[in-house]
Amino acid sequence: MNILYSWLGKTDINNMKKDVSGPISVIALKMAQPFDKIVIVANSWDEDWIDYENWLKKKLAIAHRPYEDVSINRVRIASPIDYKSISDVSQKWINKLSADSESLYINLSSGTPAMSAVSVILGKGKNNTNFCQSREGGEIFIDDIPFNFVAEYDASVARSISSKASALPVQSKAFKDITATSNQMKSVIEKAEKLAELDLPVLVLGETGTGKEVISNAIHKASNRSSKPIKTVNCGALPENLVDSILFGHVKGAFTGAVKDHSGLFEQADGGTLFLDEVGELTPDAQVKLLRALQQGEVTRVGDDKSTNVDVRVIAATHRDLSEMVANGEFREDLFYRLAVGVIEIPALRNRMEDIEPLTEALVNEINSTASKYKNYKAKSISTKAMQFIRSQPWRGNVRELWSTLNRALLLSNNVEITEQDIIASLIQRTKKDNNLDVHLSLGDVVDLNKIKEDIERAYVTAALKATGNAKVKTAKMLGLGVHQNLDTLLNKLKIELPKKRQGKKA
Ligand SMILES: Nc1ncnc2c1ncn2[C@@H]1O[C@H](COP(=O)(O)OP(=O)(O)OP(=O)(O)O)[C@@H](O)[C@H]1O
């Protein structure tokens, strides 16, 4: 039996809508030997599946090819660039289809580069797999990928096992200071440990203060490059006229002020790691320069006429949504795919509540130990009520905000046991500026202003109650309502009921 296996691509759908052949249909209709079965896997565009399947069947029937056994199968992946979930799905399908067929053809033209890469790696491990692609204009060709992945893989497994045996303690040590009690954070560390071993670019995502730099440094420390430097550059702070010089270096006399030869960060990180912090802030011009250096693996100092080869692993981090920036044309797609080979997403602290208490304890120990050098400093601990309060806070600035709040509380309070009040006094007061609504209305629009007002009131009252643990006086103060009776009026209007206070057991 001849089987065709493919991801469903956007081009396939778009072309179907124009009744024009796309990658899958070109291969299905033009391959010398017809397919007995066509298996398509997809994770989106559900609404078009039936149309697509019917359209393909019709085209096959017209061409007198088998058309009954065409199916689109739902698969779940974390994202179109998430290698782990793509590999899980592909492994299942490729194993099954390879066992069911004499010849399994895998279409590499549909789907994302990550999907094709995984298909090639998995398909190369089977003896009955062929890879095919289609070119614009309807031509198809069979790809003979002349590379023995299996032999290469065996050799690399042997290398990795021997390096693991000698490097294991170093690796776990690199991550040991990172508090990770929640399951979310445990899987972040697990992924980071795996990626540390593989010499691949890594993109670390997460809100500000979640620990992106800490994880990136640990990845470097746990990697085979740990004996070489990790160099950090804050891309948001790169002066536009000095980007080239900072990243690639310059020679004496290249510009006014270039009084001696200077190596750039790429050369300084040679053999090691370059950490590009806030990579989403790179200007378009700097993105082009960076991409070129990564593609060519060489850099040229400003004012020099020869280039130097560099061997640098790049770890990039950002709090911005890079995929959205790519979609909006603010970040180059080719650079994105180069950086986002391994992707780690660090969740916000408020979404991993189990970490708050152990983190607080670890940070308190660290602050106590640093402050022990002050003559009159006494080691502090956190009271149960203060810990409860800490757990109830949203920590919008994540671990960094928690750290600075604790630092202020421990250094400034005279209490050996830190109270809830000490923590409240140490919180940075944020003034909320949420009044800058940019509203546009067109003639004929109808707006229910009362409903909008009520939704806003409900959202703020609920959030404030959560933050204060339902304490009415504090909530009223937080919302600028004055006396707590005003809060009661608002709660009645919004029909929000507070949980009944527990009565103490009578003796
Ligand atoms: N899981 C953790 N365990 C212990 N300390 C942590 C953890 N996560 C973060 N920290 C501490 O929190 C602070 C902020 O971390 P880091 O600078 O890595 O955050 P970031 O995400 O890179 O922030 P930004 O986006 O603002 O650059 C640091 O002092 C770091 O040591």
Automatic annotation (TrEMBL):
Signal peptide feature range: none
Pfam families xref list: AAA_lid_14 (PF25601), HTH_8 (PF02954), Sigma54_activat (PF00158)
Sorted UniProt keywords: ATP-binding, Nucleotide-binding, Transcription, Transcription regulation
Name recorded for this polypeptide: Sigma-54-dependent Fis family transcriptional regulator
One MF term in the entry's GO annotations: sequence-specific DNA binding
Sigma-54 factor interaction domain location: 178-411
GO biological process: regulation of DNA-templated transcription
Source organism: Litorilituus sediminis
